[in-house]
Amino acid sequence: VQLQASGGGLVQAGGSLRLSCADSGRAFSGYSMGWFRQAPGKEREFVAAITWTGTTAYSDSVKGRFTISRGNSKNTIALQMNSLKPEDTAVYYCAAGPQLVQTRRVTNWGQGTQVTVSS
User: Fold this and answer.
1) Cβ atoms of residues 50 and 33 within 8 Å
2) CA 93/CA 110 separation, integer angstroms
3) Going by C-beta distance under 8 Å and a sequence separation of 6 or more, which residues neighbour residue 104?
4) Residue ranges of E strands in 29-75
5) Which of the residues 58, 69, 85, 110 has an alpha carbon 20 to 30 A from that of 21?
């Protein structure tokens, strides 16, 4: 698995979680990386992404609550999720793509990690 996601779990509304994704094989150096999510019965949707140089993009539904960042090695990203709401409950997927921030086009998917927010 080239994109390894971790950090999901169960949290109460208003709480925080931090997701991480590692490009363990450094296969996506230079790529944008980001997160999508899919709730039961819904289509997968864009959450946030970051370019290799640190430009970020967020969906309107998470702007101001979630923060995406890159690690010092640049081959890991993190998604800090604050003020979580029950509607944030979904499987979160790590993703990579050369123009992910600009076009939301994913060329490589990682595994998903479950985030559950209880009311």
Assistant:
1) yes
2) 6
3) 46, 49
4) 32-38, 45-50, 56-58, 66-70
5) 85
- 110: tokens are 């990682």
The span from the CA of 49 to the CA of 84, in Å, is: 18
Is residue 105 classed exposed, middle or buried when 0-12, 13-18 and 19+ CB atoms within 10 A define those classes?
exposed
Tens place of pLDDT per residue across the chain (119 aa): 689 999 999 999 999 999 999 998 888 888 999 999 999 999 999 999 999 999 999 999 999 999 999 998 889 999 999 999 999 999 999 999 999 999 999 999 998 999 999 99
* Burial class (CB within 10 angstroms; exposed 0-12, middle 13-18, buried 19+) of 61: middle
Residue 32 near residue 74, CB atoms below 8 Å: no
Q: Is 74 left (phi over 0), alpha (psi -120 to 50) or beta?
A: left
H or E element, residue 77 = strand 76-81
Do residues 1 and 67 lie in contact, with contact meaning Cβ atoms separated by under 8 Å?
no
3-class secondary-structure state, position 101: helix
Query: Partners of 5 in the beta sheet?
Result: 21
